[in-house]
Design goal:
The complex is a heterodimer of chains A (514) and B (273).
Chain A (H helix, E strand, L loop, with lengths): L5 H14 L1 E2 L2 H5 L12 H8 L3 E6 L4 E3 L7 E7 L2 E4 L2 H6 L24 H4 L20 E4 L4 E2 L1 H6 L6 E4 L3 E7 H10 L1 H14 L1 H7 L1 H4 L3 H10 L1 E5 L4 E3 L7 E7 L2 E7 L2 E8 L4 E2 L1 H6 L6 E4 L3 E7 H10 L3 H21 L2 H12 L7 E5 L8 H9 L10 E4 L2 E4 L19 E3 L6 E3 L9 H5 L6 E8 L5 E6 L12 H4 L6 E4 L4 H8 L1
Antiparallel strand pairs in A: 1-2, 2-9, 3-8, 4-7, 4-9, 5-6, 5-8, 10-17, 11-16, 12-15, 12-17, 13-14, 13-16, 18-20, 18-25, 19-20, 21-22, 23-24
Helix pairs in contact in A: 7-8
Chain B lengths: L14 H21 L7 H18 L15 H22 L8 H34 L9 H17 L3 H10 L1 H5 L15 H14 L5 H29 L1 H24 L1
Helix pairs in contact in B: 1-3, 2-3, 2-10, 3-4, 4-9, 4-10, 5-9, 8-9
Chain lengths: 514, 273
Amino acid sequence: MSAIDRAELARRHEQRLKLLVPAAVEELKGLSLFSGLPEKARDKILEKIRQYVHWVEFGPGDIVLRQGDYSDSAFFIVSGTVEVQANLKSQERFAVPRLRSTATGAAPRELRPRSSIAGMVGKGQKTFILADVAIEDTPDSRVLMQEGEVFGEVAALSRYAVGATVKSVGTTRLLQLRLPGLRMLMKTSKEFQKFVDDRYRRRTLSSHLRNVDLFSKVDARFLKEMQERAELLSFEPGQIIVDEGTEADAFYLVRGGYVRVSVRAGVTDLVVTYLRKGEYVGETALLMNLDWPFTLQAMEYVELVKISKEDFRRLLAVAPDVEDKLWNDGVAQLKARGSVMRDPISSEYLQMAAETGLIHGESVLLIDLATCTRCDDCVRACAETHGGTPRFVREGYKYRNWLIPSACYQCTDPVCMTNCPTGAITREVGTLEVTINEETCIGCSNCAKSCPWDNIVMIETGEVRTDGKAVEVASKCDLCISRPEGPACVQMCPQGATIRINFKDIDRVSTTLR
Amino acid sequence: MSSGIALAPKVPRNLKATAIVSVALVAACAVSSLFFPWHANRGPGLVFGFLAAFLFAFEMLYPWRRRLASRFLNTARNWLQAHVYLGVITLVSVFIHAGFRWPTGALGWSLMMLSVWTTLTGLLGVWLQKWIPSALADGLTVEVLYERIPAILDKLRTEAETLVENSSDRLKRFYDREARQSMGSVSGSWGYLFNVAAGRERALEKFRRMSQFVDPSEQDRVEDLMTIYTEKLELDAQYSLQSILRRWQVLHVPAAGLLIGLLVVHIAVWIVY
């Protein structure tokens, strides 16, 4: 028998769900969180927001947010106290510097595949883990947050992994604001928007900037100044950020969401690339004194840091050694632009990747149908690695000669992780694989429902619950994490038809899918 | 284990190397035959016999590679490459071992026949594995798991019959006469091996002609019926070609097993006598 009592975990989850109470407008009105809403429209706005807002109660020691998890909610402390705790030991393991009061975010980490299998799973991209909770430099790296304070908003808005574990000290009553509600509140309450922006600026921006190559060697004083002067912008899905041919007036750093970079060609737009958090754009035009050579468009909710042309020029003056890198990046961008202009077909792959959601994947499984002999060795190898149950089937979306089976993409922002009640679905900080702990999975299917690509399935364990129903657990591709040789599906394909790819790796995408 | 392996899966990677090795072996045989009279059971002839036996033994490891060694010794793809190209070198070694003469005894004759047959059927398999996937991917829009073909066909048939149920008598009669029987089961055909869309135009032409004779309000229904029928024809092609991909081994594997059995007898006879 397992040391973990799954039934007990499920019982506690059900109890927790009972404590999750929808909020009524009258109750919300009195909270300081909503004081910034315009008086006249307050009731109307609260009526809209309340569908995304719940009261929730935690007992002593209960975990509200877990470090490294992904969350889609911010929390407002109505009563009680929570303890914020960064596990410095685990961070040291990943060589993350200690948190300081002046720079309270944990240093960003790249998602990276195990070095031994890097070639098989696609290369990892710059994707970072940032803390959004202030932790002072105390010996035990803990801080208490009291009634009236908000936490979790940066991780929810920019979909970074949560930077610290938040535990309830005694009995704590919280107001949980899910992402749409949080966005609505930011849009309607200037006060709240300012509060969130200030918090981001104060706690996270410096570590975010520091991670961008451009700012990595800039002295702290300049960075501090930049932190104050940078503009924080939000865009809604489909909104044009900059238009091709207009005057380039700024440098943009993406802090959340996906930005489509395209060029005009005839009556249509050709996609050149996509930008995601941690990536930047604008240096080409600013360096060469050009108009915008691209159109930038928000593909979903996008959060940007805008640095003006003047500040950008000052940056070059104080850090001349970054100029070479910028020129190289600029040339690469123009080369990519020229490449899609010459060969518009290559842009189609990126367009398809955006439409089907493949750009979210860090390691997408593709099968070349023109080479695959339909022997199913890939599925068999997968089953053998996972105790007889394969983690994918050779069925899915077909694009030209390529099949995209229903195997987990290992998304950059794994939305499946936002709502797991027991933390069974995890991604270890700095790694690529999103894995499910079958011992602690209680079969609530939240992850399966959250996955936009239906790449998580519920499977029966063979056990039976006390109420007679079969026990189910969530199951998904974990890139054969237990297998030192890498994903079995790739290694065991006799035709070499199975590959793993990251759609940000445009060179490989266009050479492979051609 | 580089990612580059998967980027150009169709390029015959070891063809040149295999040709060079084969020519070198034949050259070695030619040179040594200048100095020694060629005997299969003596000198260089025997060495080539050993080489062929060793290679046959290696070839036989392939079916077990999934369980035995592939995980630890490189990718399945490299194993398959080795199986194919070393198989060709094995046959060359057998010819050299026999001194490019047809064996006289029944055992030698059987061994030679089986070696040639096994190699040729293996190469046929390679050709089928190159040809069929390409044909399926390029010529068909439907991609389906072999095991699910009957279930999907059932679904298509139900869809077609529901469509026809509330239609005019003329359309019903047309469906009964031209499509109902065909929709009942998968129809395999070797013709798909050479043309994946074989017979499709002729079959669909009837639907096109029929659409001229039905009420304009029913033309969409005929279009839908035609789409369903096209999918059915694609399922037939998938079934036929995937069956070939699965079954060609019947020509190869039993012969290979028999060959190994006779090879053991051949070696035993050589040791004893």
